[in-house]
Amino acid sequence: MELKQIIAERIKQAGPISFKDFMEMALYYPELGYYNSERPVIGKEGDFFTSPSVSPAFGAMISREAEKYKANLSEPLTFVEYGAGNGSLCNDIIKYFSPEKVNYYIIEKSKRLQEKQKKLLGDKVKWVESISEIHNLSGVVLSNEVPDNFAVHVVYMDEILQEIHVDYKDGKFIETMLPASDKLKKYFSDIDVTLPKGYRTEVNLEAIEWINEIEKNIKKGIVITIDYGFECSELYSAKRREGTITCYHNHKINYDPYINVGDQDITTHINFSALQKLSNLKTERFTDQASFLAENGLVSYLQDSIKNEPDLISAIKKIGFVKNMLLFEMGPRFKVLVQSKGI
Asked: What pTM was computed for the model?
């Protein structure tokens, strides 16, 4: 049975489901959800590129950022990566430091991606189900494009705050509204945001639970969160009154989560204000990816990397492509939040 039919049957039996439940099934349903199916998702054969898939230089810049805090942390340096994709970022960080100088843990929700990671990384890495399994954690907690794939609630401000639910009629998914829960109302109160009437947006409660679980379980260290998103002033501006849900399929963007069910990525922009306001971690800095990479020496790193290349022209073209992708294409869109505890 196709995933669309499975979701439709659930709705027929139990009534409309929240958009959060729809998104969770679309992305993570066993064997049929987007991140648990056999189809490639990252790279040329997939639906989108990630910064680590562009060049190992990205992992080197993350490593340089971690080195700034190394004196405060235990040795060998411990990394915990959430949602490691195809494993390339982890592989590049381990190569930068060398395997004997790093303890690396991966927390991966997708069983299919976990299998790909194990083929690439072997015994260099330990996989755990939860950060709570790592005792006395002193190190670096890292995520690249992870919270944007957490299933979100979708709300609409009418006379009162409403939550979008998904129904199924006449062979297609349709939206309906029910009064929002007190938990969703409290979220906006906690971040000091009042939505105007007619405003639609997403609430990523999983991201708040996630950042607080990290804070609870890290004894000392830094948390690096890389994703696309904004702070409240930008996220809830008038130009985003329809929300930020974005879907990726065959390197093309659309804004309809109810098509290609199980065959397209569904993402939302992250509220970086919420990650800062609603956790007890200290903010070290919040910037865009271009600034973060430039400050850690991306350009000089790339120039040094081609000094011994036999085909210099080809190498120069390659680093030109990498700079363009990481600094100019992805650089302004992605944000980097560095937070700390006990440093």
From this structure: 0.95
